[in-house]
Amino acid sequence: QVQLVESGGGLMQAGGSLRLSCAASERTFRWSSMAWFRQAPGKEREFVAVITWSGSTTDYGDSVKGRFTISRDIAKNTGYLQMNSLKPEDTAVYSCAAAAGATYFSRNYYSREEKDYDYWGQGTQVTVSS
């Protein structure tokens, strides 16, 4: 069974840093881009960042650009989200996602849209205090 497991969330003061991890139990990430989304209470899910399978391309939501960095370790089947200069408005449940059916020919493809991802983790809570 495909499984994505996030870790690394927690409580942090504004200005601090956290590093989230997303581990796959199978070869979920093979050829697939990996994305992070977040959802704050009472708000819609928001795109945070994405990285292609090859790692050659990354993209970020406007609200995190310059503060967050996405990366992945193909050998470990794990993705990461380094979050610096955290703000209270970064408080949310963060989830990683991957797409099914990726192939060698889509290894440089990525999307900012929820609908393009089939596998989701359970999420990890990030709370930033002011």
Which SSEs are present, and which pair or pack?
Blueprint: E1 4-7, E2 10-13, E3 18-24, E4 34-39, E5 46-51, E6 58-60, E7 68-73, E8 78-83, E9 92-98, E10 119-120, E11 124-129
Parallel strand pairs: 2-11
Antiparallel strand pairs: 1-3, 3-8, 4-5, 4-9, 5-6, 7-8, 9-10, 9-11
What does this structure look like?
This protein has strands at residues 4-7, 10-13, 18-24, 34-39, 46-51, 58-60, 68-73, 78-83, 92-98, 119-120, 124-129. With 130 residues, it is mainly β. The mean pLDDT is 93. 0% of the residues lie in helices and 44% in strands. A hairpin with a 6-residue loop joins strand 4 and strand 5. 34% of the residues are buried. The chain is globular and about 45 Å long. The strands form two sheets. Strands 2, 4, 5, 6, 9, 10 and 11 form a seven-stranded mixed β-sheet that branches. The chain has no helices and eleven strands.
Low-confidence stretches: none
Helix content: under 10%
- Percent strand equals 35-45%
Distance between the termini: 40 Å
Indicate the structural class: mainly beta
Rg from Cα: 14 Å
- Average pLDDT reading: 93
Total strands = 11
The backbone outline, from C-alpha atoms, is globular
H-E order: EEEEEEEEEEE
User: What is the subunit arrangement here?
Assistant: single chain
Which characteristics define this entry?
mainly beta; 7-stranded mixed β-sheet; 130 residues; 4-stranded antiparallel β-sheet
